[in-house]
Design a protein that fits this description.
seven-stranded mixed sheet, alpha/beta
């Protein structure tokens, strides 16, 4: 009797383990863009087999050759038919149409795992796949991709936003296990929070890039060479400080209530960098609001600053 119990327990352990770690899967990547090729390579490194990928552009084909060597390049429907795990790494606007097309061509089958990598989309876009019997998941790597081999190492330092059906704990576990296998940290993102989650990431990452590029461009306009090298330590320290300390790390003329300096900034930007001036105004106002909330700036100084920033004549030499 005891032997039978031991054998039964030993038989059950691999099944429980499989809930946390997906079995070795045949992976199909649609398509071999910057994200898809890197995730395909990460899954292959974890022991899965990339059986096919789709791609049309010369860049996609070259990327697949580098990161997914010897993987057949096939049309999307054939790629999906070969796969247990389908990775849909497509632009947001192309995702819904691709899912509908795969269902219409009967390329999907019950039991497949269908993953998309869009940050903005939740799992509703995969509803036709779920109706066909597939397990829908959204796995969004929180990083920027170059489509080169170094992205594989960067995955180890990033998070992946995981979204599954709210009441399907097994699906959540599968998504988290796939993220861990690719070397990333899984973070659960409820489907209802997906749009706001992506808006926050876009505001932080994409607008940060624009802000830094504007900063370097204004320095070059001032005749200052090596602008990127000049600001790199400052910007790196500012990013580190805000991530560690939040609004307590705010510094500069707005947080200090230095009206005269802000006025000079508006004047010189209006004259020399008029395209940058509106962004400076908007961000300075937001900085004033956060400075007040953090107790760094009193409300009277904040109002004076806001009035200055709202005045259309300030920073416009011709008015």
């Amino acid at each position: 009797m005891e032997r039978e119990q031991r054998e039964s327990a030993n038989h059950e352990r691999p099944q429980a383990h499989a809930m946390m770690r997906p079995a070795r899967l045949a992976v199909g990547v649609v398509s071999a863009g910057r994200v898809g090729s890197v995730l395909g390579a990460a899954l292959a490194r974890a022991g899965h087999t990339v059986v096919a990928a789709s791609g049309l552009s010369a860049a996609s084909l070259a990327r697949a050759e580098r990161l997914l060597p010897d993987v057949p390049i096939l049309p999307p429907d054939e790629t999906v038919r070969r796969a247990d795990l389908v990775v849909l790494a497509l632009p947001d606007d192309a995702l819904a149409g691709m899912v509908r097309g795969l269902v219409a061509t009967k390329s999907l089958r019950p039991g497949q795992i269908v993953v998309h990598t869009s940050g903005a989309q939740g799992i509703d876009v995969l509803a036709p796949a779920a109706e066909a019997g597939a397990l829908p998941l959204a796995l969004h790597p929180v990083m920027t991709f170059t489509g080169r081999a170094e992205d594989l190492e960067r995955l180890a330092a990033c998070s992946i936003g995981v979204t599954a059906m709210a009441d399907d704990e097994a699906a959540w576990n599968v998504g988290e296990a796939l993220a861990v296998e690719m070397g990333a940290e899984p973070v659960r993102i409820p489907d209802s929070a997906r749009a706001l989650y992506h808006a926050a990431l876009t505001h932080g990452a994409n607008h940060l890039m624009t802000l830094v590029a504007d900063c370097a461009e204004v320095l070059r306009e001032a005749g200052i060479g090596h602008s990127e090298r000049l600001v790199a330590p400052l910007l790196s320290a500012a990013l580190d400080n805000v991530l560690r300390h939040g609004d307590r790390a705010l510094t500069g003329p707005v947080a200090r209530g230095d009206i005269g300096t802000v006025r000079k900034h508006l004047e010189v930007l209006g004259d020399r960098a008029p395209d940058v001036a509106p962004a400076y105004r908007a961000l300075a106002k937001r900085t004033a609001e956060r400075s007040v909330a953090a107790g760094l700036l009193d409300t009277a100084a904040a109002k004076e600053l806001t009035d200055l920033l709202d005045d259309p004549a300030e920073g416009h030499p011709d008015q």
